[in-house]
Amino acid sequence: MLSASVDGTTSKADNNLTTDPDIPKGPTESHVLSRVEQDEKGLSQRAGHTAEITNIGWGESPDAIDEPLVAGLSNEDLWMLIRRFDKQVYRVKAVPDAPVQRLDLT
What InterPro entries does this protein's entry cite (predicted)? Predict the structure, then answer.
């Protein structure tokens, strides 16, 4: 059991629990990968390079779009990832009871 000393300072056991782990400095690997210019680009990665509006087919079924929207990822896999993300976001937003003191979770 943890206890504080009489003068209000923390005990040695408290210090062992509250020390921060080593946090690496600089960008993470995913941040570095997102900045690297890709040799191969999908439809969504090439869209927006002109002043024209580009219809890449987000409203279409995955089978109706011949070329991948994201390079290296099939359109079916992309739709699956988007559906999984949407379900996770819905679970976060779907709170059966109102939070204490009407806190806004958005």
Answer: DUF3292
Tokens matching residue 40: 């191969």
Q: Is 25 left (phi over 0), alpha (psi -120 to 50) or beta?
A: beta
Q: How are the residues of the chain apportioned to helix, strand and coil, as percentages rounded to the nearest 5? A: 40, 0, 60
- Residue 40 contacts residue 72 (beta carbons within 8 Å): yes
- CA neighbor of 78 nearest in space, from 91, 93, 92, 65: 65
51's tokens:
């002043």
Tens of pLDDT, residue by residue over 24-77, are 788 888 788 778 777 888 877 777 777 888 777 777 776 788 888 888 888 889
